[in-house]
Amino acid sequence: MIIQDAPVDPLSEVLRAAGFNAACSVRLVAGGNWALRFNPTALKFNAVRHGHCWLTPQGEAPIHVHAGDCFIVVGKPFVLSSAPGIPPVDAAEVFGATGLSAHYGDGEDVSLLGGSVALSHADSGDLVCLLPPALVIRADAGAAPMAWLLGQLDREWRDDRPGARAACDDLLRLMFIHALRAHLSQAPSDALGWLAGLNDRPVAAALRVIHADPTRSWRLSELAAVAGLSRAGFAERFKARIGRPPIEYAAVWRMRIAARRVLDGHRSVSAVAQELGFLSDSAFGAAFRRVHGISPGRYRSARGRTA
């Protein structure tokens, strides 16, 4: 079955622009009295398969997590333990050279599956900064999809069939997206920053059309009509939810798409300018510098690309 003209989803577009990837990389089984310190360089996403343990992000209070719970730790050291206050051992020593699986302590009181979530593009900070240091999604909040995904992830990891690693990576991606959805539905608006706009129907309608057609130079009246509000009412509401005026948001998003395409070695800078509706390379360069601070050519070169 071929589905055409699928609706544009702003969160999916933001994740794509941020260079969103996930890799399922570890399984931990632990028992008795134990504590392990992890020192991640990226976002860590983990799911408790069975049992329970304590999660203590650096500088934060301990959090009790149970079977079916998932948690995200945003690029900072954290400790997993059977109880708070146990002196931790460096997890790298326990996982050894392969770093894929470890059994620590006495027995099998708890098991976890997890991996790294990479947001590799320069603009990913706009998303990362909106996540708390540790985001826990409880089993009952994720409902059926998360339970099924966790079970399937566990089966793929255990069976080790052909394509299992790729399947695990994709399942972890889906679980991370469901965790973000749960966060969007549960967190207060003032804790969500611009993500709160996705829960506001008029603002979300405007976001969808901006993301659906990033090459267009949108006018305030057009976006207000999409939102079903007056120009003044829409402008005020959009800025309150997103943190910047709608036309500015559209212009910045256009340049984020431009940055992604500039880094594509198959396109010239002139081709990107034409694709995004600019009448001249100079106009494109000026718009690009306003958002990214450097010219498109220097932006590409700074990231190891040839113009």
What this model shows, in words?
By secondary structure, the chain is α+β, with helices and mostly antiparallel strands. The protein folds into two domains: 10-187, Jelly Rolls (Sandwich); 195-302, Homeodomain-like (Arc Repressor Mutant, subunit A). Helix content is 44%, strand content 21%. The protein contains twelve helices and eleven strands. The protein has a six-stranded mixed β-sheet. It has a five-stranded mixed β-sheet with strand order 5-4-7-2-8. A hairpin with a 5-residue loop joins strand 4 (52-57) and strand 5 (63-66). Helix 4 (139-159) runs antiparallel to helix 5 (164-186), helix 7 packs across helix 8 and helix 9 (246-262) packs across helix 11 (281-292). It starts with 9 loop residues before the first helix and ends in a 5-residue tail after the last helix. The mean pLDDT is 83. InterPro entries: AraC_lig, AraC_XylS_family_regulators, Homeodomain-like_sf, HTH_AraC, HTH_AraC-typ_CS, Tscrpt_reg_AraC-type_HTH. It comes from Cognatilysobacter xinjiangensis.
Biggest β-sheet strands, sense, barrel: 6 strands, mixed
Give the low-pLDDT segments: none
- Our Rg estimate from Cα atoms comes to 22 Å
Oligomer: single chain
The helix content is 40-55%
CATH architecture of the largest domain: Sandwich
Report the principal-axis shape. elongated
Helix tally equals 12
Give helix and strand order, one letter per element, not per position: HEEEEEEEEHEEHEHHHHHHHHH
**Given this structure, which CATH class of the largest domain is correct?**
Mainly Beta
